[in-house]
Sequence to fold (481 residues):
Amino acid sequence: MNRTRVPAAAPQPRRVIAVIAATALTMVCGSTSAQNDGEPGFRDLYRELIEINTTLSAGDCSAAAKAMSARLSAAGFADRDLQILGPADHPREQALIATLHGSSPKLEAVLLLAHIDVVEARREDWQRDPFKLVEEDGWFYARGASDDKAMAAVFTDAMIRYRTQGYKPRRDIKLALTCGEETSEHFNSVRWLLQNQPAALQAAFALNEGAGGELDAAGKPVSLQIQAGEKVYEDFELSTTSGGGHSSRPVPDNAIYRLAAGLMRLSAYPFPLALNEATRGYFEAQSKLVAPDVAADIQAVLKTPPDTDAQARLWAANPMWNSMLRTTCVATQLSGGHAPNALPQRATANVNCRILPGVPVAEVQKTLAMVLADDKIAIKPSDEPVVVGPAPPLTAQIMQPVRKIADTIWPGVAIVPTMSTGATDGRFLNAAGIPTYGLSGMFHDAEGSHMHGLNERIRVKSLMDGRVFLYEIVKIYGSQK
Ligand SMILES: [Zn+2]
Fold:
């Protein structure tokens, strides 16, 4: 798709009128009830954000950042509090930093982080146009409907409402709408800002994507999750060499066999089980939500020493549970040999590790060497090792407001800490000493939102409930001493 068709940075006149109308509506009606305060304006904003293509291949992430900046400006934010930031050589990947100033400049800010870039999507593969917001049978469909334009729209809308309603927090509330989360190998706003404009993201803590809520088969809210920590993604390249020669005269030393033998040892090695505050909290909460036999196994794993048979049963029941309990390293790619009739001279494999928070990459590399038990297998971290940050603490300051607001929307729902086994931009913030929590209040059923896949979606009710939840909880965090 030709990028010039992507809407221009400056909002069109029709859009300006819509923004003013929505803002005026909010100011006139005042907040009839926080719930549906300004919902038409929110829907309009969400649609605009969704319908600006922000894929790396054909989109313009900066255009989306500027469109949201225009809405914040129309709501009364001063130009100095609306910064578009990014390197000159990435003109289409500029981030927006918007600041709502607090009454106590000595207090550190609260950061609201959301990425506005989206994963690629091909029109011909989808049932509907992925870059048009479609509402059908209680669902919104579009690329980014969930990941991550739902939170980006809710945060931007909340900042507009705080401003137009005259809400004055104690702490600054910063909104960061960023690019490159889905394509960090190409460019990443958060990493670039931390390296080049660290003040822009400086905060006491941050809210980010990474956790939602679970609905049961009947659509009833079961558990609201808060993500505290994420495993670190790291690839290691393993390589072996051997003399080679004519394949009609095989010799004992063979690069492929050597590597394969090492990998077989790795496949049989479970890294030590290690719980942290988030995962212990997660399993304790889960043990109240699952069948009695599974609950008994969970309790057995939470004991010291943990029951390894029970752990094996949990692994079989839910591989995600296993990946929450330990660092994992798995072979994902393999290659070797250079000709069918020649003995191999070289074999290589990629081993992808997901490392528990706080565990140094070097320690995992040492364990790999121990397990492979063959100093003829070279081990090399395949790219720039990520500085590993500690898991953010689940303090009362963070958790009590979650409980309080959750009970006003989903009375009695279980609050479940979790640690994500995937990666978000939170990894950069945690490593920079900014504790980052995945928290959206957006519930999904077992089928999930199809994020990164075809026909991405989010329940309209889940989005609107999440909007209420985040609007209220950010207000509390912003007013904390
Ligand atoms: Zn995402």
Observations:
- The longest strand covers residues 221-230.
- Confidence is low (pLDDT under 50) at residues 2-17, 22-31.
